[in-house]
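Worked Example 4.2. Read the sequence first, then its structure tokens.
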Amino acid sequence: MIQFEIITVFFAASVALGLAPGPDNIFVLTQSALHGRAAGLFVTAGLCTGLLVHTTAVAVGVAAIFATSVIAFNTVKIFGAGYLLYLAWQAFRARSSGILHKNDSDTGFRHLYVRGVVMNITNPKVAIFFLAFLPQFADPSRGSLTLQLFILGAIFIVATIIVFGSIAWFAGAVGNFIKKSPAVQIAMHRIAGVIFVGLALSLLATER
């Protein structure tokens, strides 16, 4: 099985990667600031569910398709960018009433969870990253590669939960202030919209 030293190094690298600015942690940050800590945690759960899909894809070799097929990569890339632009459109249209309240939080949180899942799954860079990153810490001499990759994927998800959960917790503290100011709510929605547009353009510009 995987040695403890390798697990330690892999976990440290995963935490560092989680802290690096990117579409996922920025999404958690903005949603936590807008809707509170719980919303950020639901987004984090959705993103980690997406990571389960990517881990499975790498473990069974499906992710290799994205590394070799331009059509598959571009299809997912365009779909992912389109979804980000949809989120931007929603953010630009949102008003202060778009902030979640207790009576509709269940529906809103489920929606944020689904957003997290879709955002992660439709980002082909995550599939390519997992395909390139996870196998570096696996070794056929230590047993089943498939099992090792699933273990590494699980460790990466744990690191992501810790990092993104922390981001949601601290950013959520700003949420109480935002809820008291309609003007700040609208400004935050506009900022989120600009961020989504930027992420969509960045994704479209991505090459394999």
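Now turn to a second chain, presented in exactly the same format:
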Amino acid sequence: MTPTKFDAIIIGAGQAGTPLAGRLSAAGMRVALIERALLGGTCVNTGCTPTKAMVASAYAAHLARRAADYGVAVEGSIFVDMRAVKARKDRISGASRDGLEAWVKGMDHCTLYRGHARFESATTIRVGDELLGADRIFLNVGGRANVPDMPGLRDVDYLTNSTMMDVDFLPRHLVVVGGSYIGLEFAQMFRRFGSEVTIVEKGPRLISREDEDTSLAVAEILKEEGIALRLSAECISFSMQPSGPCVQVDCESGDRDVPGSHILLAIGRRPNTDDLGLEKAGVKTDDKGYVVVDEQLRTNVPGIWALGDCNGKGAFTHTSYNDFEIVAANLLDNDPRKVSDRIDAYALYTDPPLGRAGMTETAVRKSGRNALVGTRPMTRVGRAVEKGETQGFMKILVDADSKEILGCSVLGPGGDEAVHCVLDLMYAKAPIGVLQRAVHIHPNVAELLPTIAQELKPLD
């Protein structure tokens, strides 16, 4: 069978694949864009867009319950209509997806194929009965929830971040297995909707990637809202009991059984690379299934690139989109951009949110640098006090010798936005003195960043 020839084939219409199709199409290339499910990938359909819409609904419920704290009387009880919450989420996510569909259909040289793509060689891809060929192939196949073979898991029903998008009811007791970013967002969200919530985490603390002070602060925020934590939960197993599904844990304290009405697995992600026929193309993957790439996202096979979650270089929409920018810059703009140009930055969308940029304090200590640190609790930030949201703190880390800003954490109201003040300076390679002399707007959470920069102390 003779393949239909294209200048480029893109597998996956996620946050890197779709804009790349736009750039290549605009450059006059004939492009085949293949998507087996919904355009937009995880972000639009099961990740950022729908979950943050639900977080907003949960925040509204939380604020309504706190109305009296602000001198506002709300008569009667607060009722959360989960069907309306889901409908709102679906409208927002659907509008974003419809916009992508319209954009793709309007591309002059792009053909959209629906179906699962598999390599037949390093230059040919099969989609259903169609055989496509190109000298340039780009993988943007994303990832999915990790579901390890844990004892008893096959005996119970469970939810993942994807299937949670179908929930239009209020679970009586949601047991979240996994105390990292996805699990914490869902835990707080459903607690605010009205569910009883328990988080089961194998490690001794939540979000172990973060500094211990951040983990402890987030844990206190969640516990104050009535979320139960079962940490150091070794040997996790599952069983079905007359009352419903149950998670068995071997914790340092507390009952071994954690019975619930529903279980959410939030124990990491895995790349969608195990059913692409990569072996037929000779594309290498690592021991976790991620496609091995270089600094410009090229695989070991000439003419094949990997972008987004499937390459293990980032697990966020912004890193996926930056992957597109790197590839497009190198191919079309004679601009040698690379992965190591970007600074590690992300947010945890609990309330209050955590904004993070650069190195953690733990990483700075391990580096052996002569460093400075400045911190301030949100109880000493006027804007946070005025809003009645004083949980959290801010931290800035600086190289004492070069005055380079090494990292920043903002856990508090608007922390996911405020951290960009520091992130942009880090990209500009500006010394801490620039931030120290900046005049920020009052009243604002970010206005205290220059003050913190003026009060740096040696990191002991």
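Notes for the reader: The chain is about 30% helix and 25% strand. The CA atoms of residues 358 and 407 lie 4 Å apart.
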